[in-house]
Structures are given as C-alpha cells and as structure tokens.
C-alpha cells in the first residue's frame, strides 16, 4: 500500500505553530496510510475502531491517547458509529527541546523504542482534562507559549502519581451522568431536569452535589455540556445549525448564538469554518 508523507506546512497557515483539529472517521478510506515530518498526538473522545500502525492492528477505544513518531506509518478503521478524535501536530524541534530540558533520561512518550509508539488509556477525568486543555489553546495556534503550556500540562497528567483528578469525591453516578447526558438526545433536550433524571436523584440533591464537586450550579454545568456538544457537532458534522440548536434544547436560535459566542468568541458558522479541516 502506498504511504503518503504528511507535511505540517500543508495543515498550518502563515504564522501558525501547530495544528489542532477534531475529526470523525467512519472508514479506512477517510485518511490514507501515512507518516509525518512532525510530531503528532491524538486521543479518542468517542467511539471505537482499529489503529493500523506499522503493519499491526491495535484496538482503539474512548480514552486512548497515542504519541506518534515521524517514522510511524498509520491509518484508522472504525466501528459503524465512527471514531471522534482530537489531533495535535507540531514541529519536531519542540519534541527535541522537551526531551533535552525535561526527559533526557527517559525512553517513554515520543522517545519510546520498538515497533509501536506510546499508547495509554486515560480515565474519564484525565481524558476530560486533556480535551479541556486542548480546547483552551484552539484559537492560539500561532502561539508557542500555548503549545508548550498544553504539552507541559499533558505530560504532568501522564506522569506517575499525577493523573489523579483534583476532586476525588465525584460520585460514580455523577461521572456517569456527565458522560451519558450528551449522547441521550431526549434527556439532553430537557436540560437540568433531564440531567437529574439520568442521575436517579432529585434535582436539589444533584444541584448540591454539582456545586460541591465542580464549584458551579447544575444549570451552568448543563450549559457547558450543551456548548461542548454543539462545538463537537459543528466541528465533525454538516448538520444544520438550527438542528444543532434544537438538539441542545434551545427554542431560540438567537439565545443559542449568544451562549455559543460567549464561550467560543465566534459564531457557530465561524467555528465550523475554522475547525472542519482534516488532519
């Protein structure tokens, strides 16, 4: 099979330092077998499939994170539901700098020897943290300091004894509701009432627990989850914005636009135009 070499300059515009994107893969034909002239990290947000890497087939599931070396040859095959992943490509000189400054004695992460690259499965809290960190630097792809900040924070999460969430008291029922809420449309549209029903607790109890664990109201958490869902849909689908607005439980398109712009500093249309670029 022919191997394509992906070049970072093909994915970044003038002045950008790195390329960060969210993509959804439905078949092996979506991304050709390739290697790179840059370092790459990807992690699976939703779905399952197979990583076809250096002639081997490695299962991929939600939470899996992989650090690709330039010589690695890979592509993907997915289950019927597809794989949603975030992907970060950045210059090799950054990897070289990090090794010299922080990891001179290690053969882990990007410097792992052997036929397969570094691969780890993150728990749900660490996965959420990595995704949140990435979303914070999304609009700063021209900035080395934002890239370095993300990488340092991510490495800290991956180092031994660093990958524990700050709050150890989040109950399993609340964690489960946060994960399941955006993927159950009928409940998602109901907002806070739907979230509480998913928790199997009364509304007041859920609100108190959310305040304790997340330092925010249940309404604020629901609004945040709705906007994250909207951003994912805009980035990885061609669904009409009105449909996404409805799926998020909004009856007023103007109110949806106002909330979205308040978080992402751009309109839904601008967000979609910027992020629907295949890496």
From TrEMBL:
Residues 168-274 form the HTH araC/xylS-type domain. Keywords: DNA-binding, Transcription, Transcription regulation. It comes from the Bacteria. GO terms for molecular function: DNA-binding transcription factor activity; sequence-specific DNA binding. Pfam families: AraC_binding (PF02311), HTH_18 (PF12833). This is Transcriptional regulator, AraC family.
């Amino acid at each position: 099979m022919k191997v394509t070499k992906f070049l970072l300059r093909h994915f970044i515009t003038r002045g950008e330092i790195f390329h960060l994107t969210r993509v959804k893969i439905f078949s092996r034909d979506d991304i050709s077998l390739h290697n790179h002239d840059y370092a790459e990290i990807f992690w699976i947000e939703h779905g399952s499939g197979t990583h076809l890497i250096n002639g081997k087939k490695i299962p991929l599931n939600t939470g899996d994170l992989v650090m690709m070396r330039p010589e690695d040859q890979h592509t993907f095959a997915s289950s019927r539901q597809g794989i949603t992943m975030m992907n970060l490509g950045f210059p090799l000189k950054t990897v070289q700098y990090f090794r010299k400054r922080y990891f001179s004695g290690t053969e882990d992460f990007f410097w792992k020897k052997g036929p397969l690259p570094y691969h780890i499965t993150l728990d749900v809290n660490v996965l959420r943290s990595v995704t949140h960190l990435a979303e914070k630097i999304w609009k700063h792809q021209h900035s080395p300091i934002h890239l370095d900040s993300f990488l340092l924070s991510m490495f800290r999460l991956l180092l031994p004894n660093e990958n524990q969430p700050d709050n150890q008291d989040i109950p399993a029922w609340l964690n489960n509701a946060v994960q399941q809420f955006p993927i159950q449309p009928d409940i998602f549209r109901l907002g806070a009432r739907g979230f509480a029903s998913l928790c199997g607790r009364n509304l007041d109890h859920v609100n108190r627990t959310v305040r304790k664990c997340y330092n925010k109201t249940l309404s604020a958490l629901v609004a945040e989850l709705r906007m994250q869902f909207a951003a994912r849909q805009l980035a990885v689908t061609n669904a009409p914005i009105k449909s996404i607005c409805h799926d998020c439980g909004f009856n007023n398109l103007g109110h949806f636009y106002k909330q979205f712009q308040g978080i992402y500093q751009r309109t839904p249309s601008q967000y979609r135009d910027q992020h629907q670029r295949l890496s």
